[in-house]
Amino acid sequence: MNKKSCPHIVVLVLIVSLLGVLAVGGCGASKHSPVVRLPDAPRMVGGGMMIEWKAPERGTAYLVEKQTGKLVETRSLEQDQVYSFTATSIVQADEFEQMLGIRFSRARFLLYFEPAPAEGSATEATQPVHGRWSRF
User: Fold this and answer.
1) pTM higher than 0.85 for the full model?
2) How many domains does the chain have?
């Protein structure tokens, strides 16, 4: 092989390799997937930069940022307990921008609520299950 053609082959191999990596991995920023950690059917009960909401019953509140789909906070609430969220300070805005990966001015906070299962319902385990194959 000619010494002069060797650099051309190396460059060609590098270009083909780079194109292959870009084709497989993509070169754009990936879009965040929708919220996957929320329960199947929580109710949206509020939203905004200042939220104050009173739980009608025992359950779990989920604060989600709409643009990114990121779960910001979960909190267990008792009946009539108030959920409060305020993001007004510059320090909080900086922390949220780092956590969410978007400008704070573009963030849209939504509050979801899922009631707790009724006591003694089929979804609540009241005693350990001892089956035929149990070691206990």
Assistant:
1) no
2) 1
